[in-house]
Design brief:
Blueprint: H1 2-13, H2 19-23, E1 28-33, E2 36-41, E3 48-53, E4 57-59, E5 69-75, E6 80-87, E7 98-102, E8 105-109, E9 120-122, H3 126-138, E10 141-147, E11 153-159, H4 163-173
Antiparallel strand pairs: 1-2, 2-3, 3-5, 4-11, 5-6, 6-9, 7-8, 7-10, 10-11
Helix pairs in contact: 3-4
């Protein structure tokens, strides 16, 4: 379920929503907070709240990639808070390690099987989701590294300016 919901959120974010997400209507902005934006989708217990940012720098600059973003989401109906989803914009090489670094803290990212999931890195469990979200709220910068199936190593740098305010906005909207 974790991967399915993250991809549905990504579809909403990117304007390609269909199925159950589309039935909930368009996401409503909770505000823009420097480098981060916050949204709520749906109503009542089934609502989903998410904060999202795009990298300030991507390397190598000439690499062909799809959508690149970092997202933190809450789904009250499933009792999910602070779920991390990093979109690399390409299928990740399974045997290579995808990771995020915030200050001195390094986090290994899980990559799931299947065509729709292989371009996303997730925190492997709820405890790491929580720890990463806390670091995102306190940090200044997040650096995400991955390797494509073709062997291209990429580095994406995200500003965390405004992340704390965006995370507070989604926490309030999805109490």
């Amino acid at each position: 379920m974790r991967q399915k919901t993250a991809l549905l959120l990504a579809a909403v974010l990117l304007g390609a929503a269909s199925g159950p997400v589309l039935a909930q209507g368009s996401p409503r902005s909770l505000g823009s907070f420097d480098a981060w934006d916050a949204y709520v989708q749906g109503e009542g217990r089934t609502r989903v709240c998410f904060a999202v940012s795009r990298p300030t720098e991507t390397l190598p600059k000439d690499a062909r990639r799809g959508e690149i973003y970092a997202m933190v989401s809450h789904r009250p109906a499933e009792r999910v808070q602070s779920e991390i989803n990093i979109s690399f914009g390409y299928p990740l090489r399974r045997e290579a390690r995808a990771e995020a670094q915030i200050g001195a803290a390094k986090f290994a990212l899980a990559v799931f099987e299947g065509k729709d999931y292989e371009s996303h890195g997730f925190a492997p469990d709820a405890a790491q989701d929580k720890e990463m979200a806390e670091q995102i709220a306190r940090g200044a910068q997040m650096v995400v590294r991955g390797t494509s199936q073709r062997g291209t190593a990429t580095t994406d740098t995200y500003s965390l300016k405004g992340a704390s305010a965006a995370l507070k906005a989604i926490a309030e909207a999805c109490k």
